[in-house]
Design goal:
globular; 11 strands; five-stranded parallel sheet; alpha/beta
Length: 366
C-alpha cells in the first residue's frame, strides 16, 4: 500500500475517485470538480457535534461524533464503495484536511485501498481556484463578442463551441443572462465559490495559444461577480460586434425569451426594478403589457428605451479596443444564420492572426 507524503491539489487528477467527506449542505455550496459526496457526518449530525463541542467540550463531541462517523463509514462501505476493486485509489477531502477526511482514509486503508487525504482540504482548493484565475486569466487570448440585447451573442457563442472553437460561457457558468430579465426559469444561480470553481476548471482546460471567445459582460451577472483579473483581461481584448437590425433582434428575442410570457406577475415584478431609471408612467405601461402577454410591444420599447442606450454608453467606456472592433452583419438571427455568424467570427480571427504574422523574407518559400 502506498504511503506517500501530503497530496496537493495539483495531484488530484491521478486518482480514480475524489470523495468529499463534508456534509451535504457544504457539498451543495461548492466542491472539487467531479467529486462525489460521501459525508462522514450529515447536516444534522454535524450540527449536533458542533453544539456538543461548544457546550460540553471536545471529548464529548468526539465520543458522540465518533459513533456517528463509524455508522456512516459502515454504510458507505456497504453501499457506495461495495463494488470498488482492490486497486481503487480514492482521494478524500474535508474542510481543512482534518479529522473527517482522516477518519475515512484510515478505514479505507484498513480495507486495503490506497486512499489518500488532500492536504489542506477544501480550503486548499479555494486557494488554488483563486490563484489559477489570477494567474491564467491575464494570459487568455480573448475575443469579445459584442452587440446590443437581442443580437444572439450567447447563441453565437454556443455555435462557436459546436464548430470547435474555445469558448468561455460566463452566463452559462453563472446561470443567468446578465440583464434585469435574465434569470433562468426555475434555476437558481450557483454560489460565488461554485462559479469560481467552474471558471477555474474551464480556464485550466484552454489551449493558451488559441483564441477564446467570450461575451462582453459587466462585472456582475445577476448576483455573481466576475473576478477582477478576468474582467481586466476582457476589457482590454479585441472586440467583434454583431450588427443586426432592430427587427431581426426583436424577432430573436420573441423566440429566445418567450418563457417570460409564462409568468406575467413575475415579469411585472422584475420590471419594477427599472422604476428609478424610467419613471412610474413608463413602468406602468410596461407592466400592463406584461400582464397582457404583449411581449412584442414590451421588448420593442425595452430595446429602444433601456437596452440600446445602455449599450451605446457602456461599450466605449468599458472596452478599450472598442474603436478598433471588427463587425459581422446579421440580416437575420435564425439558427442557420447563427451558424453562419459563428463561421464568420472564426474567419475574422484568422484574418487578424494572419495580418499580424511577419511576411517571409525575400527568397523564402511562401
Amino acid at each position: 500500500m502506498s504511503r506517500r507524503g501530503p497530496v496537493c491539489v495539483g495531484d488530484r487528477h491521478g486518482f480514480d475517485t475524489i470523495i468529499d467527506a463534508r456534509s451535504p449542505a457544504e457539498f451543495a455550496v461548492d466542491h472539487l470538480p467531479g467529486a462525489i459526496n460521501c459525508p462522514v457526518l450529515d447536516d444534522e449530525e454535524r450540527r449536533i457535534v458542533g453544539t456538543l463541542y461548544k457546550q460540553q467540550g471536545a471529548f464529548e463531541a468526539r465520543r458522540v461524533g465518533g459513533a456517528m462517523v463509524a455508522a456512516n463509514l459502515a454504510r458507505h462501505l456497504r453501499e457506495r464503495f461495495a463494488e470498488q476493486p482492490a486497486v481503487w485509489r480514492p482521494l478524500v477531502y474535508c474542510w481543512r484536511g482534518g479529522m473527517r477526511s482522516g477518519s475515512m482514509v484510515t478505514w479505507l486503508r484498513l480495507v486495503g485501498w490506497d486512499a489518500q487525504q488532500l492536504s489542506g482540504g477544501y480550503k486548499a482548493w479555494r486557494r488554488h481556484v483563486i490563484t489559477q484565475i489570477d494567474t491564467l486569466a491575464p494570459q487568455l487570448h480573448l475575443r469579445v463578442l459584442c452587440g446590443p440585447t437581442g443580437s444572439a451573442k450567447t447563441r453565437v457563442l454556443q455555435a462557436l463551441a459546436e464548430q470547435g472553437a474555445q469558448t468561455l460561457d460566463l452566463e452559462g457558468l453563472a446561470r443567468h443572462r446578465g440583464s434585469v430579465l435574465g434569470g433562468w426559469p426555475g434555476v437558481a444561480q450557483p454560489a460565488q465559490t461554485a462559479f469560481e470553481t467552474a471558471l477555474a476548471d474551464a480556464i485550466e482546460a484552454f489551449d493558451a495559444t488559441q483564441p477564446v471567445y467570450v461575451e462582453a459582460e459587466s462585472s456582475r451577472i445577476g448576483r455573481i461577480s466576475v473576478p477582477p483579473a478576468l474582467m481586466l483581461r476582457l476589457r482590454a481584448s479585441p472586440c467583434v460586434e454583431i450588427v443586426a437590425s432592430p427587427e431581426a433582434r426583436l424577432d430573436f428575442l420573441l423566440r429566445d425569451y418567450a418563457n417570460l410570457g409564462d409568468d406575467p406577475q413575475l415579469l411585472a415584478h422584475q420590471l419594477h426594478n427599472l422604476r428609478e431609471l424610467h419613471g412610474g408612467e413608463v413602468i406602468a405601461r410596461w407592466q400592463a403589457w406584461a400582464h397582457e402577454r404583449n411581449l412584442a410591444a414590451l421588448f420593442a420599447e425595452l430595446m429602444a428605451r433601456h437596452y440600446d442606450p445602455l449599450y451605446a454608453r457602456s461599450q466605449g467606456t468599458n472596452l478599450q479596443q472598442w474603436e478598433e472592433r471588427q463587425s459581422v452583419a446579421a440580416p437575420a438571427l435564425t439558427p442557420a444564420d447563427i451558424e453562419r455568424l459563428a463561421s464568420a467570427v472564426i474567419a475574422l480571427s484568422w484574418q487578424s492572426l494572419n495580418a499580424k504574422l511577419p511576411l517571409p523574407a525575400s527568397g523564402e518559400n511562401s
